[in-house]
Design a protein that fits this description.
This is Fe-S protein. The longest helix is centred in the N-terminal third of the chain and has 28 residues. Helices cover 79% and strands 0% of the residues. It starts with a helix and ends with a helix. By secondary structure, the chain is an all-alpha fold. The structure holds protoporphyrin IX containing FE. The site of protoporphyrin IX containing FE (HEM) has 23 residues, from helix 1, helix 2, helix 3 and helix 4.
Length: 117
Amino acid sequence: MEILRHIVVLIHLVGFAVLFGAWVVEAVNGRRRVTRLMDWGLAIAAVAGLVLAAPWGIEYDLNYVKLGVKLVILLAIGALLGIGAGRQRKTGSLPPAMFWAIGVLTLTNAAIAVIWR
Ligand code: HEM
């Protein structure tokens, strides 16, 4: 059970890596757009995160306040990706504030995961 949970944590981290990595690529090459890869990263992190939010394979209590905050931030990132993709389609560009918010919120969720125990 414990090993299975560690595998789900690994999948969760892959989701984070795909989402944040795809965002960094756009930030560095100056395109500042949302991409399908970001959607995939978020979806992988979301599914694995929800599986991890159930108390199995551990002997300690989960911090549900922390998980609730992470879930709200994840939904905000999802909304930004969805609205951003629509804006891009219509106008051909993404408001810079939306682009930066996606990266900052993603990093915030990773920081909450690691720092808030
Ligand atoms: C973009 C969204 C998210 C990012 C970037 C993210 C990032 C991370 C990272 C980096 C870790 C590893 C921390 C560590 O092991 O110290 C982690 C662990 C975890 N995440 Fe997330 N997360 C996200 C969304 C969620 C959501 C929505 C949930 C559930 C509501 C969730 C539940 C968990 C749990 C339970 C763990 C701990 C795994 C364990 O030790 O058993 N995450 N997350």
